[in-house]
């Protein structure tokens, strides 16, 4: 099985797995340094748009991404060539990080607007809605404060504490990192689905055959669904996955226009 590995896929696997081992067991500081932070975070560095792809949250996160590369990557590399699959992997990974940062900026803008609105016109009901919408970020003790503030809406002490609480939530959100090669992997998936749409794949869960184009379509629709549902307790960067799909589709479409240079 391992003899079927192509050079670029093999090197990507070795580098990514090696970086995970180093960051997990030898230099744990690397995970924080190489993760991708929001551009306004004090931890943000431009090189993180590249390095975040080689960090993973845990062993299973690593395995899921590398298994996809292992399964779909070699055939793509044989068909496209080593140069193009490396471009596909890197551009989808970096591009996903860039687009996700833009999406994060949009969400942070909304959060800033809510904090500014409360600062300009403090009101217990406004604060209560903020807590309710972000309840996954609070411990249960916050509801005692919400009740106390509702009973004392004119208290400057209560208003100041509410402002500090909202700003603290903002700071925590600004400093949430993103790691993983999922954006790059989704670029590989869409490329495989576009180039080998009728290839039969056998799923493990559930155990059934499915064509590549339907598998990619399912992943795309599932990703879009999760973006719109926006489960606050879901820590998966679904928008980065969607970005990888879109960027990969654009690249493959562009390359297919000139078939003389594609093969």
UniProtKB/TrEMBL annotation:
Domain (Peptidase S54 rhomboid): give its ranges.
47-106, 175-253
Q: Its GO biological process terms?
A: proteolysis
Q: What class of enzyme is it?
A: hydrolase
Please state where this protein is localized: Membrane
Keyword Acetylation found: no
Membrane association type: Multi-pass membrane protein
* InterPro entries in the record: Peptidase_S54_rhomboid_dom, Rhomboid-like_sf, Rhomboid_protease_S54
TM helices/strands, residue ranges = 12-39, 59-76, 85-103, 184-205, 236-255
- Predominant place of localization: membrane
The name this protein goes by in its record? Rhomboid family intramembrane serine protease
What is the originating organism of this protein? Cyclobacterium jeungdonense
Q: What is the lineage of its organism?
A: Bacteria, Pseudomonadati, Bacteroidota, Cytophagia, Cytophagales
């Amino acid at each position: 099985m391992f003899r079927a590995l192509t050079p670029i896929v093999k090197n990507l696997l070795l580098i990514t797995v090696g970086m995970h081992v180093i960051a997990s067991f030898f230099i744990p500081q690397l995970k924080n340094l190489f993760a991708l932070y929001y551009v306004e975070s004090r931890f943000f560095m431009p090189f993180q748009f590249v390095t975040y792809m080689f960090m993973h949250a845990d062993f299973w996160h690593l395995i899921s991404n590398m298994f996809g590369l292992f399964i779909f990557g070699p055939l793509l590399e044989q068909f496209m060539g080593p140069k193009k699959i490396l471009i596909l992997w890197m551009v989808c990974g970096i591009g996903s990080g860039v687009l996700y940062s833009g999406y994060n900026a949009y969400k942070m803008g909304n959060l800033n607007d809510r904090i500014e609105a409360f600062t300009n016109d403090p009101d217990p009901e406004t604060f209560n809605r903020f807590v309710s919408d972000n309840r996954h970020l609070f411990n249960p003790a916050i509801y005692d404060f919400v009740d106390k503030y509702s009973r004392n809406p004119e208290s400057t002490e209560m208003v100041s504490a509410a402002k500090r609480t909202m700003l603290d939530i903002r700071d925590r959100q600004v400093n949430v990192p993103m790691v993983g090669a999922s954006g790059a992997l989704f670029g590989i998936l869409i490329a495989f689905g576009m180039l080998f749409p009728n290839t039969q794949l056998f799923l493990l869960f559930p155990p059934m055959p499915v064509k590549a184009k339907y598998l990619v379509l399912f992943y795309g629709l599932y990703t879009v669904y999760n973006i719109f549902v926006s489960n606050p307790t879901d820590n998966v960067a679904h928008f980065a996955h969607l970005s990888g799909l879109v960027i990969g589709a654009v690249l493959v479409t562009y390359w297919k226009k000139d078939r003389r240079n594609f093969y």
